[in-house]
Amino acid sequence: MTNHPTVSPAASRALEALAAAPAAALRETLLEICSSPRWAEAVAAARPWPDRASLLAANAAAMASLGTADLADAMAGHARIGTPKAGDAVSEREQAGIRGADAALLDELHEANAAYEAKFGHVFLICATGRTAATMLAALRERHPHDAATEAEIVRGELRKINDIRINRLLDEA
User: Fold this and answer.
1) For 48, which of 19, 24, 170, 171 could close a Cys bridge (C-beta 3.0–4.6 Å)?
2) Is the pLDDT of residue 67 over 70?
3) Are 55 and 91 part of one and the same domain?
């Protein structure tokens, strides 16, 4: 999902426009993808990106370089799983898998989120695109026993996946 073998002319133009954007406008756009200022700075510093793969590689490199505080900044831009931000089309689209879930399942998800947050001090973060409420709950329960260091690396990977999806959408919807 992170790489598109054929690149449309519109996506190429979007990539060129993004690479040529003034620093402030680029920063604003990148912060909509990921709320970590350090991530946005690292991705911007990698421009120009000759192709989609280069921009996605910049995302991966930037994610790999984030420290604990930077990961916290990145997570701050995400809604709690099972509770998309009202009126936020991105949050609602990414968590579409909870639509139609029964109340008991949503209650279990809420309780598991609370236990996770109490243990790790932050929201449970997962690339929710394409996942149902039940699969997100299963993943949450599977990850809860992890130690903080293991979980931080999983979160880093999930954030990278989310950013890849958002970057691809930005280029494809241009």
Assistant:
1) 19
2) yes
3) no
